[in-house]
Design goal:
Elements lengths: L15 E2 H8 L2 E2 L8 E2 L1 E3 L9 E5 L11 H6 L4 E4 L1 H7 L6 E3 L3 H12 L8 E6 L4 H14 L4 E4 L3 E4 L2 E4 L7 H13 L4 E5 L2 H6 L9 E4 L13 H9 L17 E5 L3 H10 L4 E6 L12 E8 L5 E7 L2 E7 L4 H16 L4 H8 L9 E2 L7 E5 L4 H15 L6 E5 L9 H12 L2 E4 L9 H13 L8 E4 L3 H11 L5 E5 L6 E4 L2 E4 L2 H14 L13 H4 L3 E3 L7 H4 L4 H5 L1 E4 L10 E3 L1
Parallel strand pairs: 4-5, 5-6, 6-7, 8-12, 8-13, 9-12, 13-14, 14-15, 15-16, 20-24, 21-22, 21-24, 22-23, 27-28, 28-29
Antiparallel strand pairs: 1-3, 2-7, 9-10, 10-11, 16-17, 17-18, 19-20, 23-29, 25-26
Length: about 600
């Protein structure tokens, strides 16, 4: 058996007879026996089943959950909820089997009912959008806690309920875990929960049965087009948090109040379409000539601070509120205004909220790594073209000085939207003085093919408009190369994985933390400075570490003459020629 994942469930169960579950869902019992058996929980992961659970055996992308019914029964499941195909796979078993034509479509409502509809006893704030969900969630939670609310947080990085913190496997948990968490929150005296709501969660019904008091929208840009058919389908999924969807089989009621950032065209459209479906509040940091009414929350002024933070003034229904952020970037001011508007909708004092935002740090979001070096080093979760562009623009403004340079280390995830890879490569090449293309989470794909797509996008940018481009597959070596390149006053950005502490390669997740690896690379550079760089034919540590083959193919002896470190043997510099298929690790100047 696989080890059980951590569970967040209420201590007190609400027993529900199997017959009542059948009536609630319209499911057919495989026999009349056992209708009085009482269910005390629900779980679709067989290795997380607890005694008394209803096992939801759903059809999955790779296998049907019914194949794991024996494991669930061994762990104490007292009934199974599945479809006709699942019932056939299960066969004759000693517990009731409830058969439904589309069990996933009713799973959320069923989970809510089995735990006593806990979201109705909480203020649930859901935040969706392509970028900024995590940061906005952290800002909202901090603001509400400062205003006296008892809060909980569910999101990409972690789930936090009072003093208990559990790492997250999904941005938005599946419905059985989500409603169990809500019940635990009610039990522990939480009054407000802030949660990220992904497009996958909305499309797959993970938030079915949740009563959202407030829904927040950040922005929309290209992502997840491996899952969604196109941008319209992607937008339609996000829209379900704010507007009823009569076509969907899932029972997701829109939020009572919608708070929408209208800085982009998708936000403007969403604000129009949400009108008439509850209260709509708009937020803007830019001029909005196409918005029918003046946004309720606007940015009056903003300025960058020497320490990398920002000062801003927001104008809301109650007047102007000065604010400060530790987080750099104009987009983080948009996140802050959205957070302030959301907090105001649950009666939190805007001035109290603004003061709380000044102390918020978000793991893996423009997170600084400081080991006493004379250049700026940051880790960020940016893994979409628009996010990469925004982060680079932020750092460019922060660096200011003409002589300050920027290195960007970035890859792209495997088994995800392939269309964004060349766009990311082009965006990073256009904005960086040095782009190091590396592996992110290749998952089941060939890492070299992913890197090739990024490289094609990068080299598609005209040479005068792009910086130096290198490709180093090993992520740790890529980070080390960027650090070695950096001079005092420069900046190094490691993008893509952010808070993640693992790297998935060929289906296996290996320990890997960008912050830790970046920290080690900085410390190594500090302790192992070359005493005589000039002797190796260059003006810095980069020169000693690179084999340059000008006008010829590299030979096996090149690695012996190229300097110290694993990078020297692993990389070829191709100056003045296009890379060939034989180049495994390429540097293009």
């Amino acid at each position: 058996m696989q080890p059980s994942p951590p569970l967040l469930r209420p201590a007190t169960a609400l027993p529900t007879p199997v017959g009542e579950v059948a009536e609630l869902t319209g499911a057919r019992l495989n026999s009349g026996e056992g209708t009085g058996i009482e269910i005390t929980g629900i779980e679709q992961r067989s290795n997380a089943v607890q005694p008394g659970d209803l096992f939801a055996a759903l059809a999955g992308a790779k296998a049907h959950g019914a194949r794991f019914a024996a494991d669930a029964l061994e762990r104490g499941a007292v009934a199974v909820f599945t479809d006709a195909a699942g019932a056939e796979l299960i066969g004759e078993v000693g517990v009731p089997v409830l058969v439904h034509a589309d069990p996933r479509a009713v799973l959320g409502e069923l989970s809510s009912a089995l735990y006593g509809h806990p979201s109705r006893r909480l203020r649930v704030i859901g935040i969706t959008g392509t970028s900024g969900k995590t940061t906005t969630s952290y800002l909202v939670e901090a603001g509400l806690a400062a205003a006296g609310h008892s809060t909980a947080l569910i999101g990409t990085i972690q789930t936090r309920i009072g003093g208990e913190t559990v790492p997250s496997a999904l941005t938005t948990p599946e419905a059985p875990q989500l409603h169990a968490m809500f019940a635990l929150m009610v039990e522990r005296g939480v009054d407000t929960v802030v949660m990220e709501v992904s497009s996958h969660a909305l499309a797959l019904g993970r938030v079915d049965g949740v009563h959202f008091s407030v829904g927040g929208f950040t922005n929309l840009s290209q992502d997840h087009l491996d899952f969604h058919a196109d941008f319209e389908d992607y937008f339609a999924a996000k829209r379900r948090l704010f507007v009823p969807d009569p076509v969907s089989a899932h029972r997701q009621a829109p939020a009572d109040t919608s708070v929408v950032c209208v800085d982009d065209a998708w936000g403007k459209r969403l604000a129009r379409e949400a009108s008439g479906h509850g209260r709509v509040v708009t937020v803007a940091t830019t001029e909005c000539p196409t918005v029918e009414t003046q946004p309720e929350w606007t940015l009056s002024e903003a300025s960058a601070l020497a320490d990398g933070g920002q000062r801003f003034t927001a104008t809301g229904p109650a007047g102007t509120i000065p604010g400060r952020l530790r987080l750099p970037g104009r987009y983080n001011i948009a996140n802050a205004l959205l957070a302030m508007a959301i907090c105001a909708e649950v009666q939190a004092d805007p001035s109290v909220v603004a003061a709380a935002l000044a102390d918020v740090d978000v793991p893996g979001r423009m997170q600084r790594v400081d080991e006493g070096q004379e250049f700026l080093a940051l880790v960020d979760y940016a893994h979409k073209p628009a996010a990469v562009e925004s982060v680079i623009a932020t750092l460019r403004r922060q660096l200011g000085a003409d002589e300050a340079r920027l290195a960007v280390v970035v890859g792209a995830g495997g088994d995800r939207d392939a269309g964004k890879r060349p766009l990311m490569g082009a965006t990073a090449a256009r904005g960086a003085d040095l782009l190091v293309i590396t592996d992110d989470n290749p998952r089941t794909e060939d890492p070299a093919e992913i890197r090739a797509a990024l490289r094609a996008g990068a080299l598609g940018v005209a040479e005068p408009e792009r910086g130096e481009v290198r490709e180093i597959g090993d992520r740790a070596e890529a980070i080390a190369a960027a650090v070695e390149w950096a001079r005092p006053g420069d900046a190094v950005l490691v993008a893509g994985k952010g808070h993640e502490t693992g790297q998935e390669i060929a289906g296996v997740k290996y320990p890997f933390d960008d912050c830790e690896v970046l920290s080690r690379a900085i410390l190594h550079k500090s302790s192992a400075a070359e005493p005589d760089d000039s002797a190796s034919g260059g003006s810095g540590p980069e020169a000693a570490a690179r084999v340059t083959t000008q006008g010829r193919r590299p030979t096996p002896d090149d690695s012996a003459s190229g300097g110290s470190g694993p990078e020297a043997a692993a990389r070829v510099t191709t100056q003045g020629r296009r890379p060939t298929p034989d180049d495994k690790d390429l540097t293009v100047s």
